[in-house]
Specification:
heterodimer, A: two-stranded parallel sheet, 22 helices, 4 strands, globular, B: about 375 residues, seven-stranded mixed β-sheet, 8 helices
């Protein structure tokens, strides 16, 4: 059972503080941007709360989370003051994209709300069962909260020598564990229903952020809502909310909101969007090592948007050619930094990856649509001009998928693809961004627009 | 009607294309008797049980139609030997009955059996394996075990059944991970996403063609409705399946250690002491799911894994605890002397703190005696 005040202090306080911070950072945001701003605010607010709690426990030895909460209240008040002192009212009901909502919009909203409520209920009701949650992320949170002190986690040999604590994934960053620790620290003892609350909030923030970002990108309300429903309908997304405790959903949300902010920055060149992008992508990189890999795609995508579609097409073709060459280099082994051992040649995991994306029901129809949309997008790119923002987004999609393929075709991770244990949850990290791109592509691609013009 | 026909056509096409052998020796193989390891479609039998029997069975998910897969083949080392061989299988209709077909040595070494004529090879086969009696020498290696499809036709009735299975059957979590939803059946190209994609594609092409005949027809809107309706259908089915999976999740996921063990381990931290201490966890699978789950439940104590016997004296310190879930070696406890004996007879002074029948024992290492024993 969860007390209302726990929900308020664990979720609503950081959410409000984060959202106020986002509004304070970006003077152009209106109430119509509330969905997008509050999704970004949720991620930044919770990350701020977790960081503050980590600092006070680690350096001041204070196990009660009240100090971190007080700072959050201060941040919210300061942000509200900044908003209020602006020369023009920032929060106005006259937005940049008002539109009348259709019956379909309400229908898909109902589907989203139904799914989110269902998953949130299951997340709170279930004990923590997902493997990574109780072996790594919540294992650390539980020790910190129950012992009331910060202890580092190491490998077993070091722990034996130092009276420390050991877990297998001790090298993984601590941020996600601190998110759960912040939520659980408000209870007496360890309470799993409280510890998973940050994931419950993600079930709301993720579709909210996608919807809001698509509305900012000038999409009509109904297709934006359909995209939000598509996202929450995906089996892996639903699984990671209901069987809560994996870090991938946090990484996916932070990374995709960073991508959406980057897209808006490329459209508007407003510094606030760039700052938001940096904060969100940095948060993603601090959550899991893969976050760092995906963060490195952003400068490449930006470069592609600057160099233009012809150079991007040429580099995509070169990448494809390189891939074909790598298929032929049977048995060539290299050791690369970060990626470790890489073995080129015809990858045994290629067919398996195809089954996971297109045949098994991990993603419903997403990759059928994505494959077709990619083909159309690349075709349109050779015939039509495209804005730098859309080109940057397309480059992010192509480079990220290329990175994913490299990882699961030739590195040691290929074995995980064969077993099916990791490839889908790593793909989950990219999926909200892919849905964002797909929604924009399907509604703004000139080739599709020509095809769907009424006959 | 058109949609149903299109889907059935897609199933038929997919199954025709998917007419490939099904490899059996994945990591899901269950070793029923004895010991074995499996990797890369290769099973290495390493031990028999007390009665000299080694038996394994490869699960086939929701099942393979017996009629369509009548040929079983495998490969075995020529120098392998045993005194008896049997093929075993389980059907979906009789999941608790183990069907058995004794094999002659020449059949076993030939590595191929045609089960088409066996009346018990019927319905959906959900598991296939081998049983070996009194194996001569270990390890005995079996590899490339597979079921081959018949060359016969795959009819509309099969397509109908496949469609019904796709829509109405629910699958449990896969043992390997919650991050993988195979859908109904074992590696079938006629999965729901493929069927839906085929249906949407064919419908859109059909509507596009029709729009050239019927002027003013809004084929784009109709196509969108079809795609979203299909997606909604598949999502409703998935949501129902997810709810069913979540109901059984506590007993089916890797962390399941039984309610008795979980309850004992949850109460144990308080009995071991208020202040966090080091706990050496001894288990016959020292890095397995049970040990890892125990570590989580024993928080905030620092549980150290990797031990299948008592830790060395050099590792033990006053205040440490030892929890034994199950030991592969004979660890004994003399309650009159409060001493634990390792497999080699080494003594560790310890007080029994808690015991749960069939679950485990917890000891506090006797501080004064350990300190006294050290130079």
């Amino acid at each position: 059972m969860i007390d209302v005040w726990i929900w308020l202090v664990v979720l609503v306080l950081p959410w409000v503080a984060g959202t106020a911070l986002v509004f304070a950072l970006d003077a152009r945001l209106t109430l119509n941007d509330g969905a997008y701003a509050s999704a970004c605010g949720y991620v930044l607010g919770l990350v701020l709360a977790a960081t503050l709690y980590a600092l006070q426990l680690r350096f001041l030895g204070l196990s009660s989370p009240h100090g971190a909460a007080a700072v959050l209240v201060g941040v919210a008040l300061a942000a509200a003051l900044v908003i209020q002192q602006r020369s023009r009212p920032a929060i106005s009901i006259v937005g940049s994209h008002p539109s009348k909502k259709s019956a379909w919009w309400y229908f898909f909203l109902a589907l989203v709300v139904f799914k989110v409520l269902l998953l949130a209920y299951e997340a709170v009701r279930q004990p923590v069962l997902s493997w990574d949650a109780w072996t790594t992320w919540l294992m650390r949170s539980r020790v910190w909260v129950e012992s009331g002190v910060y202890v580092p986690f190491t490998d077993t040999l070091t722990a034996l020598a130092s009276s420390g604590y050991a877990i297998e994934a001790w090298r993984y960053p601590e941020l996600v564990s601190w998110l759960a620790a912040w939520a659980a620290a408000w209870s007496d003892g360890w309470n799993e229903s409280h510890a998973v609350l940050p994931w419950v909030g993600l079930a709301v923030a993720l579709p909210l952020g996608l919807y809001g970002a698509l509305r900012r990108a000038e999409l009509a309300a109904t297709p934006a809502m359909v995209a939000a429903w598509v996202l929450v309908s995906l089996p892996l997304v639903a699984t990671h909310v209901a069987m809560t405790g994996y870090a991938d959903l946090w990484l996916a949300t932070s990374l995709s909101l960073g991508l959406m902010s980057a897209f808006h920055w490329l459209r508007t060149r407003h510094h606030a969007d760039l700052l938001l992008t940096l904060l969100l992508v940095l948060a993603a990189a601090a959550m899991k090592p893969e976050g760092l890999v995906w963060a490195s795609v952003f400068p490449l995508a930006y470069l592609a948007s600057r160099l233009g579609s012809k150079i991007f097409l040429a580099s995509a073709a070169a990448g494809l050619l390189l891939m074909l060459v790598l298929f032929q280099l049977e048995g060539l082994r290299l050791t690369l930094p970060v990626l470790g051992s890489v073995t080129f040649g015809w990858p045994a995991s290629l067919t398996e990856l195809g089954w996971h994306l297109w045949v098994y029901d991990n993603w419903h129809l997403l990759f059928w649509g994505l494959g077709a949309a990619l083909a159309v997008a690349l075709l349109a790119l050779s015939r039509y001009d495209i804005s730098p923002a859309r080109l940057g987004l397309l480059a992010w999609v192509v480079f990220s998928l290329g990175g994913f393929l490299f990882l699961f075709l030739w590195t040691d991770s290929a074995e995980w693809a064969r077993l099916g244990t990791a490839n889908n949850r790593v793909m989950l990290q990219l999926v909200p961004g892919l849905v964002f791109w797909l929604a924009i592509e399907l509604t703004q691609n000139p080739l599709l627009a020509r095809l769907t013009r009424p006959t | 009607m058109c949609a149903a026909l299109l889907i059935l056509l897609a199933i038929w096409l997919a199954e025709r294309l998917n007419n490939t052998p099904r490899a059996l020796l994945s990591t899901d193989v269950r070793v029923v008797k004895g010991g074995a390891e499996v990797a890369d479609n290769r099973l290495q039998i390493t031990a028999a049980d007390d009665e000299g029997v080694a038996m394994f069975i490869a699960p086939l998910g929701a099942g393979l139609p017996a009629k369509r897969y009548p040929l079983l083949r495998w490969r075995v080392d020529a120098d392998a030997s045993a005194q008896g061989y049997a093929l075993i299988w389980v059907t979906k209709d009789e999941p608790r009955a183990l069907q058995s077909l004794p094999l002659l040595p020449q059949q076993f070494f030939a590595g191929q059996v045609d089960l088409q004529a066996d009346p018990r090879w019927r319905g959906e086969i959900v598991g296939v394996g081998l049983a070996l009696m009194t194996v001569g020498e270990f390890p005995l290696i079996i590899d490339h075990m597979a079921l081959d499809p018949s060359t016969g036709e795959w009819g509309w009735q099969d397509a109908n059944r496949r469609l019904a299975d796709n829509l109405l059957q629910f699958e449990p979590w896969l043992p390997a991970s919650i991050n993988f939803h195979r859908g109904v059946g074992e590696r079938s190209l006629s999965s729901l996403p493929v069927l839906l994609a085929a249906w949407v594609t064919l419908s859109v092409l059909f509507l596009l063609a029709l729009s050239h005949i019927v002027h003013g027809m809004r084929w784009q809107a109709a196509s969108l409705v079809i795609a979203l309706f299909g997606w909604l259908l598949v999502d409703l089915r998935w949501t129902a399946e997810l709810l069913q999976r979540l109901r059984s999740a506590p007993a089916e996921t890797a962390g399941y250690i039984g309610s008795g063990a979980a309850s004992w381990l949850e109460q144990l931290p308080a009995r071991l002491g208020a202040a966090p201490r080091r706990v050496f966890l001894i288990d016959d699978d020292p890095g397995g799911a049970r040990a890892l789950r125990a570590r989580y439940l024993l928080s905030p104590h620092s549980t150290l894994l990797g031990f299948s016997d008592l830790p060395d004296d050099a590792l033990l310190r006053p205040g440490d605890s030892i929890v034994i879930l199950s030991a592969p070696v004979a660890i004994r406890y003399d309650s009159s002397r409060s001493v634990l004996f390792s497999a080699s007879g080494r003594e560790v002074p310890a007080l029994l703190v808690s015991a749960a029948t069939g679950v485990g024992f917890a000891f506090a290492v006797n501080a004064s005696q350990v300190e006294g024993a050290r130079p």
